[in-house]
Batch of 4 targets.
Target 1
Amino acid sequence: MIRAPRAATAPSRRARPTPAPAHPPRTLKQRTLPWLPLVVLLLGLLTLLYLQEIASVATGGYDLQLLEEERAAWELRNRQLELEIARVSSLPWIEREARERLGMVEPERLEYLEVP
């Protein structure tokens, strides 16, 4: 048996049959349904974080208002104490307190001592 040279013809390849898909293509609903609980959970967590921040800001504002009111009260008390210090430091007040509370009297006569 004599064969003809094969160089003149192209090698033949058998076409492979394409395998049938194991499952049919998924629809949009089938693709998004598994992600839905995760998305809802994530949105819920973000909402809770947002509400927590809003509550924190509101509480901070309330605390700031209370501190400003307390500061104003302390400033008023400080001014009152400064006035009282000025009043009790005056010589007429000291003299009156010495007479009334301590029972001191003005001397009848003054004596001066000469120091050598």
Target 2
Amino acid sequence: MCRTLIFKYEHCYGFRIIEGELPPDLASVMKRLWADPGVQECFMRSREFQLNDSAPYYLNSLERIAQPNYIPTQDDVLRTRVKTTGIVETHFTYKDLHFKYGIVSPFSFDHWSLNAALRMFDVGGQRSERKKWIHCFEGVTAIIFCVAMSEYDMVLAEDDEMNRMIESMKLFDSICNNKWFTETSIILFLNKKDLFEEKIKRSPLTRCFPEYTGE
């Protein structure tokens, strides 16, 4: 049986993940708290603080997650988030082609080696992580640049004056014009469309693009 993860608050140290079950009484309290009008109002203003965008998904699924026989679904797994730091390489095979996947998170650098094995590196987009990119530049054949459409009204965690979408646009421009990538294929991938469609109903696009006059 798969066990759920409980987030335990450590005074002055934030949250720490520990393994264990989610007791029904705790799940009930969390459900009531999540249903509180004040908390819902706070969530509607979540762009003003650094809230994980998968939080409402898990909070709306508390009853299912708290079941004794709970087994994570594919969505449960895909919506988890762990901040990427350092370089981690894993291997996997797809259609008889052996892949080496290295995590060093919004870019992916693809390398083709002499034995036709593909090496993919997922590099952290945070400013503090960018200095590590230089280690992935040599021999890059393709770059997948991922941008979260839903972050048009949010600011960076490391700079509360910089809009995330504007930062991504500047970063994309610098990558496209980098001398290292003159022969490299660059793919722009816009994700989190579902979150964008929900957010645009309550948060205007003019927060990021004041000149926008559409509906």
Target 3
Amino acid sequence: MNQTALLRIVERLERLLAKLPEKIRRPVLRELTPLKELFLQQRPPRFLFIGSSKIPTHRIIDTLFTAGVPEQMNVALMPVHRWIDWDISGHGTISILDARDAGDSAAAPVEEDLKRQSPDIVFLSDDAESNLEKPAAAKSASFLLHLPYDFGGALDDANVIGVCFGSEKRAAQLEEALKTQPAVRDRLLKVIRFDEMHSAEVRGLLSVLTEELPNQAKIEMIRISRDREAQHHVAQMLIKS
């Protein structure tokens, strides 16, 4: 039986459960819903890139997700400002929308794609050159690294990871500056330094992503990260159910 057929069966079961008393319905759904999301609604994690375009897309992906693996030089296949799936070393797939430096002409397709599929995590890149201390910059759209659309509208509850291309001091300044922004403050997971992303740091980032992603995207990220702790957690869920 394929995944679609199983999903339909589960959805029918949910409709039947809706007719039962809450005392019976709630504990069953508590077990059923995560399993449905994890295994029957699986999809690639969706990551939105905004901010500085100083570093090419393929290099960011290779550095953050494929440490120790030779670069995937398929940059020519990358459509501009659209969701595209990237294979990560044969282990799994991530979906990337690179909206960095999207000008007026690209704003419409970016907004269209964001309405169609909202991101799970936003990677906000800082080129280490703009002045973070200027009040005007802190309050303007340009501080959000030239984001050409409303940050809150199409992004739902997407969390943010700052990516600093500068020094440790600059990364700390970026983190403090982001924490002053209402659009980012409550969404900020961490700020990372691009030049420090070695194997251990990449594993730590992938672990954070696995924990923060919605259930539908967790399994694919676990395949990519090969995080044993996350694998064990999912296995325990299966055993309990």
Target 4
Amino acid sequence: MHRRTLTVGSVLALLVGLVIGTTGPSNATQPPSTGAVDARTATAVAAADRAVIGGSAALVTVPGERYVRATVTPWIDDLYAISYRRTYRGLPVVGGDAAVLADGTGTIRAIQAADGARIAVP
């Protein structure tokens, strides 16, 4: 009997905690509007894509080779890290990834490639 009373009491305490926790005032601030964030992300990604397609000196390319955008990671101070996977004739190049750091205004801050070797397949 004592065990059953303890179980019922625990369940009631849990339910009361849930009700109070969900009906109380929230101290959380409203998230920023996503329109401005999405526009800045799109601007950074477009600038990074232009830098990669435009043949930046930091990225070695040969005919049949391309970089495919893999991820976009929002960072601090309105910076975005955009990563690319390198392919040659449709095949993935292991160790050939690249990353571009761009801000929300479209300025490229840095470009880094993992491998500068030119690829040739006989």
